[in-house]
Amino acid sequence: MGAIIAETERLMLRTWDEADIDAFMAHLNTPAVMRWLGGVQTRADYEAAYQRITASQAEHGHSFWIVERKDDGELLGFCGLKRFNSEGSDLTGSFEIGWRLREDAWGKGYAREAAIASLDYAFDVLGAPFVVALTVQGNAGSWRLMERLGMERRTDLDFVDPRYGPELNPTIIYRIGSDQWKA
Ligand SMILES: CC(C)(COP(=O)(O)OP(=O)(O)OC[C@H]1O[C@@H](n2cnc3c(N)ncnc32)[C@H](O)[C@@H]1OP(=O)(O)O)[C@@H](O)C(=O)NCCC(=O)NCCS
């Protein structure tokens, strides 16, 4: 089992274990969850993601952590921090927050709870100067959460990601600085 990173009222955020790949795929590799993320993926895609996530954790001390519900131990998805590395933008290396939960866990405030713990970790533990979040205009669930967290829409930072077609472009950016979060 991975190492515990943070605990909230209802959730545990922890690092990945290889066994999480199967559970993650079983619960999250669905058309609804992957609607704005390029569609369902193969096992090889998840194995590659696991390698990137564990490498990020080893190199930077943070990654997209597993979100587990405390009362029954269910894996709900991930939420956490990576270093921005999308093509087409000069935000490279910035702290980026991201989230993905299984559909039967949506609408219960879990993403917000996990995101607050991740932003606390970014600013208090890692000393991030600011954190950005990325989505597309169609993904209202994701950008509403960004707004709910007090993140600021930054149209000047939007960019076209060359890996995707028009439905998944442009990437839109929200940002929050350390001072804004602490206020
Ligand atoms: C985005 C996602 C993580 C939100 O998870 P969630 O647990 O349902 O979010 P929360 O319950 O914490 O809600 C946070 C806020 O966003 C709003 N929200 C969530 N989903 C919404 C939707 N589909 N439409 C409009 N608002 C939505 C909530 O109402 C809430 O705002 P409020 O407090 O003002 O009511 C979840 O929908 C998901 O995993 N989607 C698929 C993966 C994905 O697209 N990830 C993001 C990639 S950029």
Notes on the structure:
It is a single chain. This protein has one domain (4-182): Gcn5-related N-acetyltransferase (GNAT) (Aminopeptidase). The protein has helices spanning 20-28, 43-60, 110-125, 140-148, 178-182; strands spanning 4-7, 11-14, 64-69, 75-83, 95-101, 130-135, 152-153, 172-177. The chain is of the alpha+beta class and 183 residues long. It is built from 5 helices and 8 strands. 31% of the residues lie in helices and 24% in strands. An 8-stranded mixed beta sheet has the order 1-2-3-4-5-6-8-7, with helices on both faces. The longest helix is centred in the N-terminal third of the chain and has 18 residues, at 43-60. A hairpin with a 3-residue loop joins strand 1 and strand 2 (11-14). The model has no long low-confidence stretch (mean pLDDT 97). Coenzyme A (COA) binds at residues 33, 36-37, 99-101, 106-112, 135, 139-142, 144-145, 148. Residues 33, 36-37, 99-101, 106-112, 135, 139-142, 144-145, 148 line the site of coenzyme A.
